[in-house]
């Protein structure tokens, strides 16, 4: 960057600069020249995180003590060299389009600084390189959760919640990255292996936020109402919407101090002295540590469609055998994958060319579909496997050709290597070629698990559409749907069940319902055949969700209490007591769709159909298709406990739907356990519980004294809390009755009591630190004394 009196020469671009001595941050005397210098020096690590993302600027031309304004449209006089994109907006301007800058060079950032644009805000979607607007596909390639501490919450507490968010994201296979926002809170980002719709990204973020709020109602909220944020961290999931933006990593903040959005390590978030960082500190950190977000936005955006890690094959004239790209990506000394040395692989040609589908547990589970052609396996990555119904279309992403002996490969690719993860053969067989053109392939597959006539149609440079062709029309008759009784599960341990043969779902505590929507009429039928349609007016939106479809679904209607947990008692008595609750229908199976009975379709095929229907319910708060639990069985049981579910259900992937039967093809596992504990103290509440009991501190007797086993903060009515306060008041003492040393936040505000009261607690499991997991208060045991335990 070369400077003259009134201009800067930045990488060949001349930028007029003015008022370089103007103080933009009066509290520190930080001048515009320093802001411009910051954006110049931080450009290398900032630009990848705004690459191809339309930039909304928040400007303070007269400094942070003045009134700022947001700017979307580029102003008159914007240099021609600044890349830009026209994007359609409703009710914006005469033609409804906005001209956004796309920051791709240092010079762009320096020009923003000259404009007094201290804050740069971008969406979680990027503009594909082959699209120049205005109808830009808004596919998110990352998600963000904005953790905003409410009154009375410091940054260290916000960091604790961020770690909880990280653990949930880890549970669904998403690596996450924390960024202190430069204001009050923390942004947690997670990259997506393939772009998804903004609605899909928002749904994932919302589910995580709502889950945490349900599990930690005292400290977390996912509700935007500011009145409920005191003492809590608000997890804002809405910033993943197509129309929303978030402060870009490394952007300055227009606050009283020149703080910046600073990527942090998870180790830093564990420190009690965590704080926001000044822009000078961020520069120093980058010089030492580089970009802590380097892996978040590594891949360039090529098109408006989903992608995988593999690079495209762009040659239209394919050589007979060229495995150079395959070998370039792999180290023969580090991976057990074949390298084309076995010339006899797949040599049995009497039955015809072979195909293979390999289940690949890499960063994301996907299926590799390979067809023998000209001495190699022409390959596609299919995220959801080939479609099982002609009404489905599936994305297939072409990858590099593989050697023929890869058709026999099953095993583990080491972590850190290309495609690292477990590979197993899902199906294989032979096929006949009907058509093979550069942009269209039609084959008939003959495998053990999959058969039929499939078309692959190119829709992008490496993206294809996979379609099961319908050779003859199917009659529209609801076959075998006279029996409304659902299939039932047998109670049996699921701990030793494998992922390969079994899938795992949450177990819900409500009314089982068969949902019939045929010829535009909705019926909700219980397992005993009772029509409860009028009992649940909240579910009437299903009619609008399904539109012209004919479908029969299986699910469970539940009542969620104020903490977000299912409560059967509340469901059963809701009309009698008038107590507030949220009704939600959890859908987990589909039995019939548009004239086709799915009763004899294996569970795996039915689940694929259900996943295709799930987006129809995105806007319906009363209906949800819950995600599957990760396996194997032991892990599924553990996750169901962590999420506060009643239990878990295991279903054989190849099981057909047996109406009205209790089958060993479905197994159920219940989580909750009961224990009797001794109350040793309590912590004051927050929000609605201010000046009262927020949670009880409980323990178990041992030979050395009372051992602390955790806090119980749910399961109480307001009347019970008041009665407990009255009963514990005379038992106050100055010191802790527990032999353990408790965490400082608990020690600081705990009210200790004589350990005389015995309580009954329902819980799921024990944590690694020996505390009760998800304890729920059930009541006082008047029939027992502490010595009885």
TrEMBL record:
Its cofactor is Mn(2+). Keywords: ATP-binding, DNA damage, DNA recombination, DNA repair, DNA-binding, DNA-directed DNA polymerase, Exonuclease, Hydrolase, Ligase, Manganese, Metal-binding, Multifunctional enzyme, Nuclease, Nucleotide-binding, Nucleotidyltransferase, Transferase. Its EC number is 6.5.1.1. Residues 315-335 have a biased composition (Basic and acidic residues). It is an enzyme of class 6 (ligase). One of its GO terms (molecular function) is exonuclease activity. The keyword Nucleotide-binding applies. Signal peptide: none annotated. Pfam families: DNA_ligase_A_C, DNA_ligase_A_M, LigD_N, LigD_Prim-Pol. Residues 576-702 form the ATP-dependent DNA ligase family profile domain. CDD domains: Adenylation_DNA_ligase_LigD_LigC, MtLigD_Pol_like, OBF_DNA_ligase_LigD. Residues 301-347 are annotated as: Disordered. It comes from Williamsia sterculiae. The keyword Disulfide bond does not apply. This is DNA ligase (ATP). It comes from the Bacteria.
């Amino acid at each position: 960057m070369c400077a003259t009196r009134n201009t800067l020469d930045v990488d060949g671009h001349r930028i007029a600069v003015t008022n370089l001595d103007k103080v933009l941050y009066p509290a520190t005397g930080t001048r515009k020249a320093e802001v411009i210098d910051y954006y110049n020096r931080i450009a290398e690590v900032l630009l990848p995180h705004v690459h191809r993302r339309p930039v909304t600027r928040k400007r303070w031309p007269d400094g942070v003590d003045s009134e700022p304004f947001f700017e979307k449209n580029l102003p008159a006089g914007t240099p021609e060299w600044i890349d830009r994109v026209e994007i359609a907006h409703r009710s914006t301007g005469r033609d409804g389009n906005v001209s956004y800058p796309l920051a791709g060079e240092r010079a762009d950032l320096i020009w923003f600084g000259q404009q007094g644009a201290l804050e740069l805000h971008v969406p979680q979607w990027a503009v594909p390189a082959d699209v120049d607007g205005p109808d830009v596909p808004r596919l998110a390639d990352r998600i963000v959760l904005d953790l905003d501490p409410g009154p009375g919450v410091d940054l260290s507490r916000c960091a604790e919640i961020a770690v909880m968010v990280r653990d949930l994201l880890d549970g669904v296979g998403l690596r996450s990255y924390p960024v202190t926002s430069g204001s009050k809170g923390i942004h947690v980002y997670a990259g997506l292996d393939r772009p998804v719709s903004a609605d899909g990204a928002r749904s994932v973020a919302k589910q995580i936020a709502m889950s945490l709020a349900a599990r930690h109602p005292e400290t977390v909220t996912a509700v935007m109402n500011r009145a409920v944020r005191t003492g809590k961290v608000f997890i804002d999931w809405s910033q993943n919407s197509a129309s929303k933006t978030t402060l870009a990593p490394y952007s300055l903040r227009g606050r009283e101090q020149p703080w910046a959005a600073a990527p942090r390590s998870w180790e830093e978030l564990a420190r009690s002295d965590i704080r926001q960082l000044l822009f000078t500190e961020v520069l120093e950190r980058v010089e030492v540590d580089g970009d802590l977000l380097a892996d978040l936005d590594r891949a360039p955006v090529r098109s408006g469609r989903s992608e995988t890690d593999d690079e495209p094959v762009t040659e239209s004239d394919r050589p007979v055998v060229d495995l150079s790209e395959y070998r370039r990506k792999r180290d023969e000394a580090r991976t057990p994958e074949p390298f084309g040395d076995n010339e006899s692989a797949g040599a049995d040609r009497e039955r015809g060319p072979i195909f293979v589908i390999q289940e690949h547990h890499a960063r994301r589970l996907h299926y590799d579909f390979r067809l023998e052609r000209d001495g190699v396996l022409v390959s596609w990555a299919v995220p959801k496997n080939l479609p099982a119904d002609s009404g489905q279309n599936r994305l297939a992403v072409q990858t590099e050709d593989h050697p023929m002996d890869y058709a026999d490969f099953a095993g583990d690719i080491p972590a850190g290597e290309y495609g690292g993860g477990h590979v197993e053969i899902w199906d294989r067989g032979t096929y006949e070629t009907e058509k093979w053109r550069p942009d269209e392939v039609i084959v008939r597959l003959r495998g053990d698990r999959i058969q039929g006539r499939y078309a692959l149609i190119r829709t992008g440079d490496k993206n294809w559409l996979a379609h099961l062709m319908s050779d003859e029309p199917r009659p529209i008759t609801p076959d075998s749907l006279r029996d409304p009784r659902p299939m039932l599960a047998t109670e049996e341990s699921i701990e030793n069940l494998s992922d390969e043969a079994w899938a795992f779902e949450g177990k819900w505590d409500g009314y089982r319902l068969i949902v019939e929507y045929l010829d535009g009429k909705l019926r909700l039928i219980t397992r005993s055949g009772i029509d409860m349609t009028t009992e649940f007016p909240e579910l009437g939106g299903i009619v609008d969700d399904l539109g012209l479809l004919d479908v029969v679904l299986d699910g469970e209607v539940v009542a969620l209490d104020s903490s977000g947990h299912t409560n059967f008692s509340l469901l059963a008595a809701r009309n009698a007591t008038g107590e507030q609750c949220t009704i939600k229908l959890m859908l987990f199976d589909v039995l019939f769709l548009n004239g086709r009975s799915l009763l004899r379709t294996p569970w795996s095929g039915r689940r694929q159909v259900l996943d295709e229907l799930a987006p129809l319910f995105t806007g319906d708060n009363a209906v949800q298709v819950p995600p599957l639990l990760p396996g194997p069985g032991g892990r599924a049981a553990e996750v169901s406990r962590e999420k506060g579910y009643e239990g878990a259900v295991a279903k054989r992937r190849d099981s057909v739907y047996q109406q009205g039967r209790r089958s060993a093809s479905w197994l159920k596992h219940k989580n909750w356990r009961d224990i009797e504990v001794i109350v040793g103290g309590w912590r004051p509440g927050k929000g609605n519980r201010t000046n009262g009991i927020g949670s009880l501190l409980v323990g178990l007797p041992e030979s050395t004294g009372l051992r602390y086993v955790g806090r119980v903060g749910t399961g109480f009515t307001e009347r019970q809390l008041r009665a407990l306060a009255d009963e514990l008041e005379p038992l106050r003492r100055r010191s802790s009755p527990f032999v353990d040393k408790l965490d400082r936040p608990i020690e600081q505000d705990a009210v200790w009591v004589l350990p005389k009261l015995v309580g009954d607690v329902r819980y799921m499991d024990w944590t690694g630190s020996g505390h009760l997991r998800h304890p729920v208060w059930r009541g006082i045991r008047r029939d027992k004394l502490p010595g009885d335990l």
